[in-house]
Specification:
Chain A: Keywords: Signal. The structure holds 2 protein chains of 2 kinds. Chain A is α/β, with parallel strands linked by helices. Helices cover 56% and strands 12% of the residues of chain A. Chain B has one domain: Calycin beta-barrel core domain (Lipocalin), CATH 2.40.128. In chain B, the strands form 2 sheets. A 10-stranded antiparallel β-sheet of chain B has the order 4-3-2-1-10-9-8-7-6-5. Classes of the chains: A alpha/beta, B alpha+beta.
Chain lengths: 355, 244
């Protein structure tokens, strides 16, 4: 069965909605979603990484990879508007999803998501956790469910559940505010007065620009250019995803096997009779156990190096892809927004010049 | 002998200075805690020290565990004789004279066997960076340490806990295993950077004395490798001819 079908099927089972999606209060396909690259959740003190089983480079790659998996789940559901992965939060986003990785070790995946709309209203903040089934990383299951599919489906179900509570008027406000907040980043003086922000951080729509306002047309034009750039960025994430998927699944599979073996080893240890405390046999056993656990950790580190050796060139290629703009993809994105702002200012000045 | 070659930075610990060493170790390792701790008064790191290199054991300059055991046995015997002569008198020896000598000897032998077992690596390869170090030991797990400016905190799991850090020019690794076995490795490089000494001290809770063994390594240059290999997850080691 194709992955999209799995997604739809599990979504249906999860939701068990009393009404079909077609008769929902709002058509969620009109709502665009931006997924920001996750916070990798790496502790600031590197000495804790080993203890927590965190490999920073892998976490950084996962922070780019996992939002893309979620994006695929949303796209496969055919129920949302354009869904993109972006490096930084964007004020012109209708629905913004940010996340932080809490745990990712092959057996368990945990992340926290914060979903908010352009009105500044938080839909929900929730921690998602899932356990990979035994056959999650078997080769040749490209068409089967993804590892942690149920976890992603839970996210999808929560998004739908919240969307069901929206009035069509609210959806309209979300779309208008997204546009106006974006416009205000380019021309605060012209577009700032159209909305207000209260003390709780929520945005209120005060009025709309006049029909046929030439400034709106200019903003639309700039926004389309930004979409082209964002789609290019999104394409880079798609390539990273495709290049990384086989290696990443292998890494998670090895990790899972190691963790299961460790658990079984510790169980066997508990069953054995203990030699006399303080004796050579007791000390040796204690040391061998410790040595074994260290070797396990070091084996994981070696796997992490193998992972980095394979994935790093793709990540580096991703970062240096867009020519004429320098720095990381995140910096390029910011630079591009500055350029767009300049283009808008220039155009606005030209329009106001006497002919 | 070695004392004359490397004063005062690089000094093997003989049996007479064992008492002092044990006292220092006691300060380093918190006996009442389940995790090893570092003495907060440890000297600041000497950043010029670099232990990087390939090292091979110099058996001639390393401790002989059997000889050490013989000298401990002789000391215990002397203590027992002294005690027999003046029953109840105080004793300043590093070996607890109040304990049953045969029991003490048995405990020390166990520790010595363990020390011999732990420190048997013939080759040690060290890679040191600005922020971390990996000490690869043949037939044993690698000792690794991430340097921090703050007080180091122990890494604890069910099978043991460990702590590492610099004490001026010496790199320390302290491990505490379940059942009360404490292992302390102290790595010191000679001033000419051609020798490395690893001093390993074992203590067992309830044991009247610890056991220290010094292993001295000399630097060697590994044979040049004509291949550059890179480990990859899906294809294992991928090697290519090294660029000349």
């Amino acid at each position: 069965m194709h992955r999209a079908h799995w997604s739809c099927l599990s979504l249906f089972l999860l939701l068990c909605l009393p009404v079909s999606m077609l008769s929902a209060a709002v058509d969620t396909r009109e709502l665009n979603i931006s997924l920001v690259v996750f916070d990798p959740g790496i502790p600031t003190d590197p000495t804790h990484n080993k203890e927590l089983g965190i490999f920073p480079k892998i976490r950084s790659a996962e922070a780019r990879y996992l939002p893309f998996v979620l994006r695929q789940v949303l796209v496969d559901s055919n129920s949302w508007g354009a869904t993109r992965v972006i490096p930084d939060p964007d004020p012109g986003t209708e629905l913004l999803i940010t996340g932080r990785l809490l745990q990712s070790d092959g057996i368990q995946l945990s992340f926290e998501l914060n979903v908010s709309d352009s009105r500044g209203q938080t839909w929900f903040v929730k921690t998602y956790s899932g356990i990979a089934p035994e056959n999650a990383y078997q080769t040749g299951r490209q068409n089967g469910p993804r590892p942690f599919q149920a976890t992603y489906d839970e996210v999808l179900a929560d998004l739908f559940r919240y969307a069901q509570t929206l009035e069509p008027k609210a959806l309209e406000a979300i779309r208008n505010l997204a546009f106006l907040r974006y416009a205000a980043t380019l021309s605060p003086a012209a577009f700032g007065p159209y909305f207000d922000r209260d003390e709780t951080g929520n945005y209120q729509l005060l009025r709309l620009p006049a029909y046929g306002d030439p400034m709106v047309a200019r903003i639309e034009k700039v926004r389309q250019q930004e979409y082209v750039f964002v789609d290019t960025v999104d394409e880079q994430y798609r390539k990273l995803f495709a290049a990384m998927a086989p290696t990443y699944n292998l890494w998670r599979r090895y990790n899972r096997e190691q963790a299961i073996y460790q658990e079984a080893y510790e169980e066997r240890l508990a069953d054995r009779s203990k030699p006399k405390s303080g004796s050579y046999q007791a000390m040796k056993r204690s040391y061998i156990n410790f040595r074994w656990s260290k070797i396990q950790q070091q084996e994981s580190a070696k796997l992490a190096t193998g992972f980095n050796n394979e994935v790093a060139p793709t990540v580096m290629q991703l970062q240096g892809r867009v020519v004429e703009l320098e720095g990381s993809l995140e910096e390029q994105y910011r630079e591009w927004r500055r350029i767009l702002q300049s283009i808008y200012q220039l155009e606005a000045t030209e329009q106001s010049l006497p002919r | 002998m070695i004392f004359a070659v490397f004063p005062p930075v690089f000094r093997p610990i003989n049996s007479s200075s064992r008492a002092l060493c044990l006292l220092l170790l006691a300060a380093f390792l918190s006996a009442c805690s389940n995790s090893p701790t570092v003495d907060s008064k440890a000297a600041p790191r000497d950043t010029s020290i670099d232990l990087t290199g390939s090292w091979e054991m110099d058996y001639g300059r390393s401790d002989n565990v059997e000889q050490q055991l013989r000298s401990i046995y002789n000391e215990l015997r002397r203590n027992a004789e002294r005690r027999a002569r003046s029953a109840g008198g105080s004793n300043a020896s590093s070996i607890n004279a109040g304990a049953d000598p045969s029991r003490t000897m048995s405990r020390v032998i166990d520790l010595a066997r363990m020390a011999d077992y732990i420190t048997g690596s013939q080759v040690v390869t060290i890679e040191q960076g600005p922020d971390d170090i990996i000490v690869e030991r043949e037939d044993n797990f690698a000792l690794s340490c991430t340097f921090t400016d703050d007080t180091p905190e122990p890494i604890v799991d069910e099978l043991g806990s460990e702590l590492c850090g610099w004490d001026a020019h010496q790199l320390l690794f302290a491990m505490q295993l379940p059942d009360g076995l404490r292992i302390n490795h102290r790595l010191t490089i000679s001033p000419d950077r051609q020798s490395l000494q690893i001093t390993t001290t074992l203590n067992q809770s309830g044991s009247p004395a610890g056991f220290t063994v010094n292993r001295v390594y000399y630097r060697f240059k590994p044979l040049p490798d004509n291949y550059e290999c890179e480990y990859t997850l899906s294809r294992g080691n991928v090697c290519s001819r090294a660029k000349l």
